[in-house]
Amino acid sequence: MLRRIAPALLTVLVVALGVTALAARPPQGIPQRTADFVVLAGVAGLRWEDVGPQSTPTLWRMAQEGSIGSLSVRSAHRPTCPVDGWLTLGAGSFAAWNGSRAAGGCPATGVAVEQPDGIGANLPDQESVVQYNQQRLPWGAVPGSLSESVRCSVAVGPGAAVAAARPFGRVDRYASALPADPRVLLGSCVLSIVDLGTVAGTDPATRAEEARAADAQLARVLAARPPRSLVLVAGISDTDQTSRLHVAVADGPGWERGWLTSASTGRDGYLQLVDLAPTALAALGRPMPERLFLGRPAISSGGRPADLVNAINVPADADREAAAQRNVSGRFFTLLAGVQVLLALAMLPLLRRARPHAGPSGPTPVSGRIVAVVELLLVAAALTVPAALLADAVPWWRGEHPGWIFAGITALLVAAGTTAVRFAPGYAGSLGPVGAVAGLTTLVVGLDVLTGASLQLNGVVGYSALQGGRYAGLSTVGLGVFLAGALLTGGWLAQRVHRGWRPAVMVAVGGLAVVVVGSPYLGADQVGAIALTAGVSVAAVISAGGWLTITRLAWATMAALAVGIGFAVVDLRRPPVERGSLGRFLSALGDGTGGFTVHRSSTENFETLVNSPLTVLALAGGLLVWFALLQPWGGLMRLFGIYPAVRAALAGTVVAAVIGGVLDGAALDVLGAAAALVVPLAALASLRVLGHAADRTRPVPGRFRADGADDDSGSGGIGPAGGGGGPTGGGGPLGAVHPRPISGPPASAPAPVAPPADPSAGADDPAEPTASGSTPDAAPTVVVPPRQVTRSSTEVAAS
After folding, report:
1. Is 260 helix (H, G, I), strand (E, B) or coil?
2. Which tens digit of pLDDT belongs to each residue from 594-644?
3. How many CB atoms lie within 10 A of CB 368?
4. What is d(CA 68, CA 46) in angstroms, rounded to the nearest whole number?
5. Side-chain-side CA neighbours of residue 351 (13 Å)
6. Whole-model pTM?
7. What are the distances in angstroms from CA 1 to CA 8, 14, 160?
């Protein structure tokens, strides 16, 4: 009875863990009305390295009293040109100007601003810009949404006119420059947008001069600001093809000496350009437009250092790290893909010569030293991604040659990790390296997530704040290696227990991983949690053996759907501004605008599939598995037959990685990151299993299978699960003893029957099939060395 209802109970448990992880949300500060007037002052290209007490004294004092942060200026065009930045500010969503551009550059001509009446202004190109963003771009932005949300607005300068223009092109009040006394102009409307100029180029002296000029204009704005006003200063865009993080400062009642943050970033000290429009409306107490902004209102959080120099060094250092990460990340993954492809090619002849032959003729044996070296290389390859993640604990980006420094640190960490795995207990077992590497990877990524994911922010294998995709939680690569490591760890642990307990072990380990991935406090990846739920369910239902039947697949599908539907119901009950990505998508489907999300996701999948080096990792790993490891001579099918829990973990990894990548717009990136860990370990385990292919076991007379024992797990004595001399007891052919060198059997006569081995040896390997093709009973076994014959015992029996 219990066995029949076990799938239903496990499904309910996984669903409960998943929905609980996704539904619980950290408390968020609710933006309150704090001002009667808002002044948005923009300086294109302004970065924190341009701010100083001598060059920008006004901005320095403003940062001392207000809240500061790093501003990501992502727009619908990359890089974000000044006109794109101003347009995105006014739209509250990712927008772009539709002018002609050079390759990867900015529009060649300026924005036409007409002043027919001397009060306001018109932008004759605005209507075509709105149509371009609505019909050609996947974000559905409506330029002018900010100005449409207030009764009147003021624009000073051509850039501000782009932000303040309504969708039909009208600017309520406009001045090309600040008047001699700006008080009347800035106090005429509740919202004022001011263009303070541009800071461009790479020459420090030129940048300092331009920053000084912008600061002088800011001093006039602050002197003329209306009473009870909020002033926001932002580095509104990039000025060349290199994206950077920019300045964000808020000064006003309720914004004293803190970090700027918003629900769209989920990390203190980080803000998006699309957050400025909802921040202005929230400060004024005005309702958001019917079509919600992509951004979220900013708030001020505590924890900022009292010393302003130390406080500004934090976003300035983050900008340097993000810039270095952009240059190093692509090279790292390209090199990783190339190394793993070469390693896969080197494995092909080794796998073909790995299985010992009983007869005097056969392939030339491979030296045991070569096999040992290849095994260590496979371990090192599997540890490369977690080592690269740990490398960000060292500030390598501050050096003169950051790429080489990062490479050196990563190499040292890979060497240290490989050494630790090599000398770990149980390394000699067929599954020893798999368990050690998977556990180490899960531990590294999990601890980083539990401590705030600081290593993934702007990390080489993490996410970049410049891209504007994620700012907290798990990255795409982190999700791939974490789900693979967690499922492999669960499979390794499940293989060590009785067959009946394996699904429970998989659910326990996988359920904890779902919580880590999906909790907004931790991984904050809703799609990843749903995908991992499907993978855990698949792994659980086949971990005890058997095929992935329609019934079992149905249970796994139901679990993933139940988690998704359960969270969707909870998410839709929240206020619109507090909903997650799933709730916003379902709301968009309800009002007929879900097509933008679907179009955007499909576009992101295609671009990632074509441009990402992780696609090469995924495809190369798949080719190695299909055309080599899954072949009769490849060893993986033999591994699956002996270790069903490991087969279940690998199947669950593929399911979770594919679903997570496609639904999250990452194409094969999640699968590629998982393959970087899984494929080398699968090749290593297959190599070791092939090394024991000619080993034979013989049951000891007078002993019977224990009640409830399985073909590959025992319940006591010295059987496979009992810790004795059987194949999983440490002394058998797949026990804790390292596989003998890949070579033919000895030419000498068979040795006497060996007694049972020490019961204290490791127990991660179940029994190999006997010469007749059956699996030995879970009774004590002793090793009988292979016979030196011209034909196998199976051939003799057949004759």
Report:
1. strand
2. 566 666 677 777 778 888 888 888 998 899 899 888 888 888 888 998 999
3. 15
4. 14
5. 25
6. 0.81
7. 12, 20, 72
Structure tokens at 562: 């139940």
Concatenate the DSSP letters of all residues of 593-605 into one string: -HHHHHHHHHHHH
Q: Which residue has the tokens 């390794």?
A: 492
- Ranges of beta strands (E only) in 579-721 are 696-699
As beta bridge partners, residue 38 has 191, 230
Q: Which residue has the higher pLDDT, 787 or 413?
A: 413
3-state helix, strand, coil in the chain (%, to 5): 50, 10, 40
- For residues 743 and 385, what is the distance between their CA atoms, to the nearest angstrom? 33
Residue pLDDT, tens place only, 298-338:
999 988 999 999 999 999 999 999 999 988 998 999 999 99
DSSP code for 430? T
Is the Cβ–Cβ distance between 553 and 561 less than 8 Å? no
DSSP state of 55: T
Contact of 146 with 91, CB cutoff 8 Å: yes
Burial class of residue 357 in the structure, from the number of CB atoms within 10 Å of its CB (0-12 exposed, 13-18 middle, 19+ buried) = middle
- The two beta strands, 270-272 and 153-156, are unpaired
Please report where in the chains the tokens 């999300």 appear, as a residue: 597
Closest C-alpha among 179, 182, 175 to residue 157: 175
Spatial separation of the C-alpha atoms in residues 190 and 34, rounded to whole Å: 13
For residue 723, pLDDT over 80 is answered with: no
